[in-house]
Amino acid sequence: MTGRPLELTRAQILSFRRSVGALDERLPLTAASIRTAAWAGLQDSMPRAALLSLHARVNGIAPTALDHASLAQVWGLRWSAYVVAARDAAIFTRGRMPDNERDRRKFEDLAERVDAHLAGRKVPFGAVARPLRLHDHNSVRYATVTGRLRIRWEGARQPLLWTVPAPKLDYIAARLELARRYLHVFGAGTPASFQIWAGVRPASAQSAFDGLARSLTPVRTPIGDAWILASDEPALRGAPKPAAPARLLPSGDTYFLLQGRDRELLVPTAKQRALLWTTRVWPGALLVGAEVVGTWRRAGALVTIEPWRRLSRTEREVVEAEAAALPLPDVGGRMAVRWVG
């Protein structure tokens, strides 16, 4: 990780993010495409957010897409509900295992106790705390870093909880791969930004970057110095690809799952940042062409859109077409759009 930093512009970074995130052009409906769309995980803290994130990236996503055999749901980054490729579940769980041996043993022991108690059953996660004498219901989440817990959450009820055999992937290898995926999907990052995104301790984040040292290239971005995967440099230097006409990205979508100064790169105007990253539940992001140009929310069959600039008639038409195509089982394709402002 030596040498003069590569200068990257905002346009280069955002174009790269859209391209690797399959937001410029939807992928065909295959298990490989679904895995690509979930390369950095799909946050599902808002009901059906992961479904809508898949829809923004893959053609033909049906309301039942999260039941696809290639997907799994876990308590992943920052203990949030995540949908990931089933074959990658250990990356998003064991990759967050702490370095402290005492903590590791504690979490491994908790996973063993949960597994013994469930004995192959699937139960509401709130039914586990009392028989295992845990401090509270959420304490069981700590066992997720062992890679042995799976959940199913629809939003209306408690998630179902069950266990699976322990993965073979070492936690250090899992963390390195998690850091690779972070850098690949976001284009440029630092140990500090990775630490916040993944929900790991600062020392663990720094250790991951140190472990990737030989495969990283230093860069200078409009918001400061960072690192990229050396293998991504040609794509970052390449000509930007045409952006999709419009995408409706749900609350917590990977494309704008950012903190601190990283938000400034995506949305340069402070007033608009406050509208997108609110202090409560985030709205969705309205992506038109290469820029986030507003927010959106859904209530039943009604999508309310608040653009930050005047959209042309053509732009409004493509946004409305995106809204009409949202794969939501409770509305049956009868979405209506209300424009605000």
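Second entry:
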Amino acid sequence: MNDDDSLSSLLKTWRHQPREAPDFNRGVWSRLQAKPASSAMPSLFGQLRAFPSATARWAMPLAASFVLLLSLATGSGVAFAYESMTHDDRMAAEYARSIDPLQMAMAHQSSPSHP
């Protein structure tokens, strides 16, 4: 217990004194001046290449959601169109089956008989 108390008090008194870099400000200003300031608008490819990845963190889930919704809408539209196109044919075949005596007899023969 005593060692913990002395270590705790020692850690409380400790302060970090970082060394100052004498040419820090000069180095920063020289790097800033070395980079040319371009007033021309970069191309679209240049903008996309320089797009920061931290900003694009939300782009992939958004794109995946958009593709999922687009696929769902397209699939639903195709299914609805197919159902609409084949509806008349199915109704006509069912009606013909209900009034044609031969098809009615075939339907009764194919069904299992009850004892």
